[in-house]
């Protein structure tokens, strides 16, 4: 672990492999080797460590997430979906997993399915709900469905009216569709909350220079 913390990853792998010969099904060692193998771009080895981790039923959510990520990077989308769908809601990577599933469906040309998937993800946390709505809006913007994207941002702001990132994103979208009143309103709202927000100051300045008489 000390070697890993000082970014001596290859040496750390060697030490963890020695430990693994003594404790072949130790979840912490398998997990560490999986992560270190990813960091040293030993993708095949990482896959095997995570497969073993999932097989023994330890850190199964985490193992499934990384197996899905490996498959996605290799553009094996069906395999990626198989693993991502095994990640349970209590997992730390659950929300990111749902975003990845939506992205894969989009890559496969299934825009409606990607959107439907995001809208059906069960969440209890307010911030998770906002994050999903933000992702939904981004997909809609990519698809040039600006009105529905605006509605997604509106729903997010109903959950938390002073959410800086959503206000700023809605302002940019408002400019894209010619809603300059909304643009200025949202940017000024951001600056009321964070008077020194550089992005909002910059965007408001440019918008006033471009659109004011």
Descriptive keywords:
single chain, 213 residues, mainly alpha, 13 helices
Which percent range fits the helix content? over 70%
Structural class: mainly alpha
- Overall morphology: elongated
Q: Indicate the multimeric state.
A: single chain
Number of helices: 13
Largest sheet: none
Unreliably modeled segments:
none
Task: Report the sheet-strand fraction.
Answer: under 5%
Report what the structure shows.
This protein has 213 residues and is mainly α. The protein is 76% helix and 0% strand. It contains 13 helices and no strands.
Question: How are the SSEs ordered, and which strands pair?
Answer:
Blueprint: H1 2-5, H2 9-22, H3 27-39, H4 43-55, H5 60-73, H6 77-84, H7 94-107, H8 111-120, H9 126-142, H10 146-159, H11 164-176, H12 180-193, H13 198-211
Can you summarize this structure?
The chain has 213 residues and is mainly alpha-helical. It has helices at 2-5, 9-22, 27-39, 43-55, 60-73, 77-84, 94-107, 111-120, 126-142, 146-159, 164-176, 180-193, 198-211.
